[in-house]
Amino acid sequence: GPGITLYINEKGGRVAIIVPSCFNFHRQVIVQNVIRYLYKNRVPFPIVSGSAYLLPMLFRKGEEDILVVFNGNTDPAFVNIEYHNKQSIDAVLLKPLDIPCSYKLLKRNEKNNYWETGTAVPYMSFLVIKNNTI
After folding, report:
1. CA-CA to 65 of 20 to 30 Å: which in 50, 83, 84, 128?
2. CA 20 from chain center: how many Å?
3. How many angstroms separate the CA atoms of 47 and 116, rounded?
4. Measured between alpha carbons, how far apart are the two ends of the chain, in Å?
């Protein structure tokens, strides 16, 4: 069956070996925990959760970051973003056949900087968080 091996090599580096398998919500959580382990809980990029079919894409150019989250699920989905050291996050929602609209994210946990959408992101929509806000 699918497996994961975590170890620390002879130089002190953290290593993860993951056997590919079908992707679901439980595998998403496992992979995210492996990422946290590898970065010693100081992940330098956003971690997105809320549905197994939320597809995050991070674009960086100099000081500018753009995070795009596509909801590929068959239902609307709440988006949770874990990103440290940010005070506020504003976003734009791109829905099929609709005008782009401003979208606010709510801070869920002051200590860990978890953010969530106040309303669900519709099916086949993109949540775009741009500039230096992420």
Report:
1. 50
2. 19
3. 12
4. 37
Judge whether 57 and 109 are in contact, CB under 8 Å. Answer: no
In the numeric block, the tokens 């970051």 are attached to: 65
Which single residue is written with the structure tokens 């699918």?
2
Share of the chain above pLDDT 70, in %: 84
**Torsion angles phi and psi, residue 102, rounded to 5:** -65, 145
Phi first, then psi: give them for residue 92, nearest 5 degrees: -125, 135
Residue 117 is encoded by which pair of tokens? 């959408």
Tokens representing 56 are 């995050």
Q: Position 107: which residue type?
A: K
pTM of the prediction? 0.79
H helix intervals, 7-69: 25-38
Q: What is the DSSP letter of 71?
A: E
